Amino acid sequence: MTDLHTVEIAAVLRQLTARLIASDDLDEALEDLVETAADLVDGAAWCAVTLVRAGGPSTAAASAGLPEPLLESQYDSGAGPSMEAIRTRDVILSDDLAADARWPQWRARALAAGVKAVLTVPVDIDEHAVGALTVYSAEPGRFTADIGLTAMLVAEQAGLLLSAVLDRGRRADVHAELTEALADGETVNRAVGIMMVQRACSADAALDVLRTTARRLDLPLTTVAARLVQTVERRVSP
Questions:
Q1: Which of 32, 65, 142, 162 is the most exposed place for a label (fewest CB within 10 A)?
Q2: Of the options 3.30.70, 3.30.750, 1.10.10, 3.40.50, the CATH number for the domain spanning 185-236
Protein backbone atom coordinates (compact mmCIF):
# COMPACT_ATOMS: atom_id res chain seq x y z
CA MET A 1 0.00 0.00 0.00
CA THR A 2 2.59 2.53 -1.05
CA ASP A 3 -0.07 5.06 -2.05
CA LEU A 4 -3.37 5.01 -0.21
CA HIS A 5 -6.21 6.88 -1.86
CA THR A 6 -9.47 7.98 -0.29
CA VAL A 7 -11.35 4.82 -1.28
CA GLU A 8 -8.59 2.61 0.13
CA ILE A 9 -8.44 4.58 3.38
CA ALA A 10 -12.22 4.24 3.74
CA ALA A 11 -11.91 0.50 3.08
CA VAL A 12 -9.28 0.14 5.82
CA LEU A 13 -11.49 1.98 8.32
CA ARG A 14 -14.53 -0.10 7.34
CA GLN A 15 -12.55 -3.30 7.79
CA LEU A 16 -11.28 -2.17 11.19
CA THR A 17 -14.77 -1.11 12.31
CA ALA A 18 -16.29 -4.42 11.23
CA ARG A 19 -13.65 -6.41 13.11
CA LEU A 20 -13.72 -4.41 16.33
CA ILE A 21 -17.45 -3.81 16.57
CA ALA A 22 -18.05 -7.56 16.55
CA SER A 23 -15.69 -8.18 19.46
CA ASP A 24 -16.55 -8.32 23.15
CA ASP A 25 -12.97 -9.05 24.21
CA LEU A 26 -10.41 -6.23 24.45
CA ASP A 27 -7.38 -8.47 23.89
CA GLU A 28 -8.93 -9.95 20.76
CA ALA A 29 -9.86 -6.48 19.48
CA LEU A 30 -6.30 -5.24 20.03
CA GLU A 31 -4.93 -8.18 18.04
CA ASP A 32 -7.25 -7.20 15.18
CA LEU A 33 -6.02 -3.61 15.41
CA VAL A 34 -2.37 -4.72 15.26
CA GLU A 35 -3.03 -6.87 12.20
CA THR A 36 -4.87 -4.08 10.39
CA ALA A 37 -2.17 -1.49 11.09
CA ALA A 38 0.73 -3.74 10.06
CA ASP A 39 -0.96 -4.28 6.69
CA LEU A 40 -0.72 -0.56 5.92
CA VAL A 41 2.97 -0.87 5.02
CA ASP A 42 4.49 -2.65 2.02
CA GLY A 43 7.07 -5.31 2.79
CA ALA A 44 7.96 -6.72 6.19
CA ALA A 45 6.26 -4.74 8.93
CA TRP A 46 5.13 -5.25 12.49
CA CYS A 47 2.84 -3.42 14.86
CA ALA A 48 2.37 -3.11 18.60
CA VAL A 49 -0.06 -1.38 20.93
CA THR A 50 1.29 0.07 24.16
CA LEU A 51 -1.20 0.94 26.89
CA VAL A 52 -0.56 2.89 30.08
CA ARG A 53 -2.83 1.80 32.90
CA ALA A 54 -2.59 1.77 36.69
CA GLY A 55 0.43 -0.54 36.67
CA GLY A 56 2.37 1.53 34.12
CA PRO A 57 3.09 0.98 30.42
CA SER A 58 2.87 -2.49 28.89
CA THR A 59 2.47 -4.15 25.50
CA ALA A 60 -1.22 -4.93 25.06
CA ALA A 61 -0.78 -6.60 21.64
CA ALA A 62 2.04 -7.12 19.16
CA SER A 63 2.75 -8.76 15.82
CA ALA A 64 4.48 -12.12 15.86
CA GLY A 65 8.22 -11.80 15.40
CA LEU A 66 8.54 -8.42 17.08
CA PRO A 67 11.18 -8.85 19.82
CA GLU A 68 9.71 -8.31 23.28
CA PRO A 69 12.95 -6.74 24.65
CA LEU A 70 12.64 -4.04 21.98
CA LEU A 71 9.26 -3.08 23.40
CA GLU A 72 10.11 -3.49 27.07
CA SER A 73 13.28 -1.39 26.82
CA GLN A 74 11.14 1.68 26.13
CA TYR A 75 9.12 1.11 29.28
CA ASP A 76 12.21 0.70 31.45
CA SER A 77 14.00 3.80 30.15
CA GLY A 78 11.02 5.93 29.16
CA ALA A 79 12.84 6.67 25.89
CA GLY A 80 11.54 5.53 22.53
CA PRO A 81 8.93 6.44 19.90
CA SER A 82 5.99 4.81 21.68
CA MET A 83 6.69 6.47 25.02
CA GLU A 84 7.33 9.82 23.30
CA ALA A 85 3.98 9.62 21.46
CA ILE A 86 2.21 8.81 24.72
CA ARG A 87 3.96 11.64 26.54
CA THR A 88 3.51 14.32 23.84
CA ARG A 89 0.17 13.03 22.44
CA ASP A 90 1.66 13.66 18.99
CA VAL A 91 2.61 11.60 15.93
CA ILE A 92 6.23 10.38 16.04
CA LEU A 93 7.92 9.41 12.78
CA SER A 94 11.39 8.15 11.96
CA ASP A 95 11.45 7.10 8.34
CA ASP A 96 15.12 6.06 8.55
CA LEU A 97 16.36 5.05 11.99
CA ALA A 98 19.94 4.75 10.76
CA ALA A 99 20.01 8.51 10.22
CA ASP A 100 18.05 9.44 13.36
CA ALA A 101 19.86 10.55 16.52
CA ARG A 102 16.87 10.20 18.85
CA TRP A 103 16.59 7.46 21.50
CA PRO A 104 20.17 6.15 20.94
CA GLN A 105 19.90 3.03 23.12
CA TRP A 106 16.49 1.99 21.81
CA ARG A 107 17.51 2.84 18.21
CA ALA A 108 20.52 0.52 18.45
CA ARG A 109 18.26 -2.31 19.63
CA ALA A 110 15.77 -1.61 16.85
CA LEU A 111 18.37 -1.63 14.09
CA ALA A 112 19.86 -4.85 15.46
CA ALA A 113 16.38 -6.40 15.35
CA GLY A 114 15.92 -5.42 11.69
CA VAL A 115 13.68 -2.41 12.28
CA LYS A 116 14.64 0.44 9.95
CA ALA A 117 11.71 2.86 10.32
CA VAL A 118 8.95 3.53 12.85
CA LEU A 119 5.66 5.43 12.97
CA THR A 120 3.78 5.96 16.25
CA VAL A 121 0.40 7.58 16.83
CA PRO A 122 -1.29 8.10 20.21
CA VAL A 123 -4.41 6.10 21.07
CA ASP A 124 -6.96 7.13 23.71
CA ILE A 125 -9.42 4.45 24.81
CA ASP A 126 -10.84 6.00 27.97
CA GLU A 127 -9.67 7.85 31.07
CA HIS A 128 -8.21 4.61 32.43
CA ALA A 129 -6.30 3.49 29.33
CA VAL A 130 -4.22 5.65 27.01
CA GLY A 131 -1.41 4.49 24.80
CA ALA A 132 0.14 4.37 21.36
CA LEU A 133 -0.08 2.40 18.14
CA THR A 134 3.38 1.80 16.67
CA VAL A 135 4.16 0.44 13.21
CA TYR A 136 7.67 -0.86 12.54
CA SER A 137 9.07 -1.32 9.02
CA ALA A 138 11.98 -3.49 7.92
CA GLU A 139 12.80 -0.94 5.20
CA PRO A 140 13.36 2.82 5.39
CA GLY A 141 11.23 5.23 3.40
CA ARG A 142 8.02 3.22 3.63
CA PHE A 143 5.93 5.73 5.55
CA THR A 144 4.29 7.98 2.98
CA ALA A 145 2.08 10.93 3.91
CA ASP A 146 -1.00 8.81 3.08
CA ILE A 147 0.13 6.03 5.42
CA GLY A 148 0.74 8.56 8.19
CA LEU A 149 -2.75 10.02 7.72
CA THR A 150 -4.33 6.56 7.63
CA ALA A 151 -2.50 5.51 10.79
CA MET A 152 -3.88 8.59 12.56
CA LEU A 153 -7.41 7.84 11.39
CA VAL A 154 -7.04 4.17 12.36
CA ALA A 155 -5.85 5.16 15.85
CA GLU A 156 -8.72 7.62 16.33
CA GLN A 157 -11.33 5.15 15.11
CA ALA A 158 -9.77 2.34 17.13
CA GLY A 159 -9.89 4.43 20.30
CA LEU A 160 -13.64 4.93 19.95
CA LEU A 161 -14.30 1.29 19.08
CA LEU A 162 -12.02 -0.12 21.79
CA SER A 163 -13.80 2.04 24.35
CA ALA A 164 -17.08 0.41 23.29
CA VAL A 165 -15.47 -3.05 23.49
CA LEU A 166 -14.20 -2.26 26.99
CA ASP A 167 -17.65 -1.07 28.08
CA ARG A 168 -19.27 -4.25 26.77
CA GLY A 169 -16.69 -6.34 28.58
CA ARG A 170 -17.27 -4.49 31.84
CA ARG A 171 -21.03 -4.92 31.56
CA ALA A 172 -20.56 -8.64 30.89
CA ASP A 173 -18.33 -8.93 33.97
CA VAL A 174 -20.90 -7.15 36.14
CA HIS A 175 -23.67 -9.38 34.82
CA ALA A 176 -21.62 -12.52 35.51
CA GLU A 177 -20.82 -11.37 39.03
CA LEU A 178 -24.46 -10.49 39.64
CA THR A 179 -25.52 -13.96 38.52
CA GLU A 180 -22.86 -15.55 40.71
CA ALA A 181 -23.72 -13.40 43.69
CA LEU A 182 -27.44 -14.08 43.46
CA ALA A 183 -26.73 -17.79 43.23
CA ASP A 184 -24.30 -17.58 46.15
CA GLY A 185 -26.90 -17.14 48.80
CA GLU A 186 -29.98 -15.50 50.17
CA THR A 187 -27.99 -12.83 52.03
CA VAL A 188 -26.43 -11.28 48.93
CA ASN A 189 -29.78 -11.49 47.17
CA ARG A 190 -31.46 -9.60 50.00
CA ALA A 191 -28.65 -7.02 50.15
CA VAL A 192 -29.00 -6.32 46.44
CA GLY A 193 -32.74 -5.87 46.88
CA ILE A 194 -32.22 -3.47 49.80
CA MET A 195 -29.73 -1.41 47.83
CA MET A 196 -32.09 -1.25 44.84
CA VAL A 197 -34.84 0.18 47.06
CA GLN A 198 -32.53 2.60 48.89
CA ARG A 199 -30.94 3.98 45.73
CA ALA A 200 -33.77 3.41 43.24
CA CYS A 201 -31.28 1.69 40.96
CA SER A 202 -30.96 -1.49 38.90
CA ALA A 203 -29.69 -4.81 40.21
CA ASP A 204 -26.42 -4.31 38.30
CA ALA A 205 -25.88 -0.91 39.90
CA ALA A 206 -26.77 -2.24 43.36
CA LEU A 207 -24.27 -5.05 43.05
CA ASP A 208 -21.64 -2.60 41.83
CA VAL A 209 -22.10 -0.49 44.99
CA LEU A 210 -21.73 -3.59 47.16
CA ARG A 211 -18.63 -4.73 45.27
CA THR A 212 -17.02 -1.28 45.55
CA THR A 213 -17.70 -1.21 49.28
CA ALA A 214 -16.26 -4.71 49.68
CA ARG A 215 -13.07 -3.69 47.87
CA ARG A 216 -12.65 -0.54 49.95
CA LEU A 217 -13.12 -2.46 53.20
CA ASP A 218 -11.09 -5.43 51.93
CA LEU A 219 -13.91 -7.77 52.91
CA PRO A 220 -15.74 -10.57 51.08
CA LEU A 221 -18.91 -9.51 49.29
CA THR A 222 -20.97 -11.89 51.41
CA THR A 223 -19.71 -10.21 54.62
CA VAL A 224 -20.64 -6.73 53.38
CA ALA A 225 -24.05 -8.03 52.29
CA ALA A 226 -24.65 -9.65 55.68
CA ARG A 227 -23.77 -6.45 57.53
CA LEU A 228 -26.17 -4.43 55.37
CA VAL A 229 -29.00 -6.90 55.94
CA GLN A 230 -28.31 -6.94 59.70
CA THR A 231 -28.27 -3.13 59.87
CA VAL A 232 -31.63 -2.87 58.10
CA GLU A 233 -33.14 -5.63 60.26
CA ARG A 234 -32.08 -3.82 63.43
CA ARG A 235 -33.66 -0.60 62.20
CA VAL A 236 -37.03 -2.23 61.53
CA SER A 237 -37.05 -4.40 64.69
CA PRO A 238 -39.46 -3.14 67.40
A1: 65
A2: 1.10.10
